[in-house]
Structures are given as structure tokens and as C-alpha cells.
């Protein structure tokens, strides 16, 4: 896991927001993601940076990113890996380089606009104990996406894996900001100072559920995770591990889930993990 050096994290206080995007076989999405984000950042005050980690794609994503990197230099910086290192190792590569006050972690199939970022930054500013803030996510056709949930048990996770559409169809999302157990890492906003206090992503998890693990660590550090449904972003989820079909991503997902239960010492119920969280006092504001 580790943490980042404080001097590195704050070496460039003139940088307002650092974005970290992971790309793996994302040629269908990555150009729109980068262009829309660059446009959004151009409407915000201050200087910004975009870090993309190209994770050994075979669909031409790397070649496209080299073109985008030239077009959007010096805003866009790309790390090119020769193989898929998973979501944690690769994202950590970029997180070690961020210089912004705020850090935006997003998937290559997510799109966000400037008003959304402004609102999320304001929510962080107004809630000093907030560690991560996330918007409402929707599919491109406007359907609500269940991007937040209670911490998973084995039964809940398996049910979500195969019946997510049913859960989303029945969901009644809140209309005002509220705390949630965890949010998928398709679009997170946090302060860079949180990385020094909580650390980086756990590299013992290859693909998932690194987002659940990190949110748990945020809660245990005395911070909260806030869902702000007043603003919406689009997430055209690739769903690499969803469904009953056993593939490499699904297998690694199960291994990651078992590791999560072992690490945080819970399995069938959530009473124990909530007790662990309650032992930690609210964190001191930054």
C-alpha cells in the first residue's frame, strides 16, 4: 500500500486538480474521456493536470494516447505499461506523481463536466471530515447506476454480481448529500492530503474490490465517504467482471473479495466491521 511523500504531493501548490485515469483496451472511450475532461478543467480556476496510465492495451489505445498526449501537452501526461498491472499498481503509479490540491480518480469510460467538479470540490470544502466525495452516476441512456452500496458480504456481493440490473431498477437514490459505506472508483474526488493519511491503493488486490478496501480504510482513518446526488456524471461501465461467466477478471475479483474479508476480519455480517469503524474517532480537519 504505502503512502506518498508529503513534499511530492504538495510540490506544486499552484496545481488545483490532478486527474488520474486508467486505460485498458479503452480506445472506444479514452478520447472522449480525455477531451471532455480537458474541456471541463479549462472552465475551472487554476492550473490542472491529467495523468493517464495506459495498461498494456492491445486495441490501439496506446497509439491514440500518444496523439492526444502531443495535442494536450503539457496538461496530459501518459504512463505506458507494457502489460496489464491491474487497477491498484497502475493507479498508484500516477498517484505518486499528483501535485494538485484535489485528486480526481476516474475510469476511462466516465465523463464529467465542470459544474460537477465545482460542486464536488465545494462539498469537500464544506465537509472537513469528508475523505471521498462522489456524484450520482448514470449510464449513457440516462438509467441510474448503483455506484454506492453497503460494505459487501459474500452473499450481497454475489447477488450484486448477477442481479445488479434488478437492484438498480428498484433503487430509490437520495436527493441530497449523504454518507455511504463505499462508492465504486469510477469517479472519486478527494484531497491529496488524504493519500498521506490513508495511503495508496492496496497492491495485493489486482482488480477489485480495491474501491471497497480503500473506502473502508478512509472510514477507519476517521473520515467519511459522501454521495452527492445533486450532480451527475456518465459512466459507460465496461463491466469486466460482471455476470456468471467465469473469466480472468471475475476470478481475480473473487480472490480480491476473499482477501478483503480476511484483511478487515469480516465475512458473513457487517456488525464487526462497523464496530471497527466506530472505534476510530473523527479525523482532524486538514
Description:
The chain has 286 residues and is α/β, with parallel strands linked by helices. It has one domain (6-278): Alpha-Beta Complex (Spore Coat Polysaccharide Biosynthesis Protein SpsA, Chain A). The chain is 40% helix and 23% strand. It has ten helices and twelve strands. The chain has helices at 6-9, 27-42, 61-71, 86-95, 114-126, 154-170, 193-198, 210-220, 248-264, 271-278, and strands at residues 15-23, 47-55, 76-81, 102-107, 110-111, 130-138, 144-145, 148-149, 178-179, 182-183, 187-191, 224-235. Residues 5-12 and 240-247 have low confidence and may be disordered.
Relevant terms:
single chain; 286 residues; alpha/beta; Spore Coat Polysaccharide Biosynthesis Protein SpsA, Chain A; 10 helices
Question: What's the alpha carbon Rg, rounded to whole Å?
Answer: 18 Å
Order of helices and strands: HEHEHEHEEHEEEHEEEHHEHH
pLDDT < 50 stretches: 5-12, 240-247
The total tally of domains equals 1
- How would you state the average pLDDT, rounded? 89
The CATH architecture comes to Alpha-Beta Complex
Number of helices: 10
Structural class: alpha/beta
Count of beta strands: 12
The span between the termini is 22 Å
Helix content: 25-40%
Strand content: 15-25%
| Largest sheet report | 10 strands, mixed
CATH superfamily: Spore Coat Polysaccharide Biosynthesis Protein SpsA, Chain A
Amino acid at each position: 500500500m504505502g503512502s506518498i511523500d508529503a513534499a511530492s504531493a504538495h510540490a506544486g501548490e499552484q496545481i488545483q486538480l490532478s486527474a488520474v485515469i486508467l486505460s485498458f483496451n479503452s480506445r472506444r472511450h479514452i478520447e472522449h474521456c480525455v477531451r471532455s475532461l480537458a474541456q471541463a478543467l479549462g472552465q475551472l480556476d487554476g492550473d490542472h493536470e491529467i495523468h493517464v496510465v495506459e495498461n498494456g492495451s492491445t486495441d490501439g489505445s496506446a497509439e491514440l494516447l500518444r496523439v492526444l498526449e502531443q495535442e494536450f501537452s503539457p496538461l496530459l501526461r501518459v504512463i505506458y505499461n507494457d502489460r496489464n498491472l491491474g487497477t491498484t499498481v497502475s493507479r498508484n503509479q500516477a498517484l505518486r506523481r499528483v501535485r494538485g490540491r484535489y485528486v480526481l480518480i476516474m475510469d476511462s469510460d466516465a465523463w464529467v463536466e465542470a459544474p460537477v467538479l465545482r460542486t464536488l470540490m465545494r462539498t469537500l470544502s464544506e465537509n472537513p471530515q469528508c475523505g471521498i466525495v462522489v456524484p450520482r452516476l448514470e449510464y449513457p441512456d440516462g438509467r441510474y447506476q448503483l455506484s454506492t452500496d453497503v460494505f459487501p458480504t459474500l452473499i450481497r456481493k454475489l447477488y450484486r454480481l448477477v442481479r445488479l440490473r434488478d437492484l438498480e431498477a428498484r433503487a430509490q437514490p437520495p436527493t441530497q448529500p449523504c454518507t455511504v459505506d463505499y462508492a465504486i472508483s469510477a469517479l472519486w474526488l478527494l484531497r491529496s492530503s488524504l493519500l498521506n493519511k490513508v495511503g495508496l491503493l492496496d497492491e495485493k488486490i489486482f482488480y477489485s474490490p480495491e474501491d471497497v478496501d480503500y473506502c473502508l480504510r478512509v472510514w477507519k482513518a476517521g473520515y467519511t465517504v459522501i454521495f452527492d446526488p445533486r450532480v451527475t456524471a456518465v459512466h459507460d461501465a465496461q463491466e469486466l467482471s460482471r455476470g456468471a461467466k467465469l473469466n480472468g477478471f471475475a476470478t481475480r475479483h473473487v480472490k480480491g473479495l476473499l482477501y478483503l474479508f480476511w484483511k478487515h476480519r469480516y465475512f458473513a455480517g457487517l456488525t464487526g466491521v462497523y464496530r471497527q469503524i466506530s472505534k476510530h474517532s473523527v479525523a482532524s480537519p486538514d
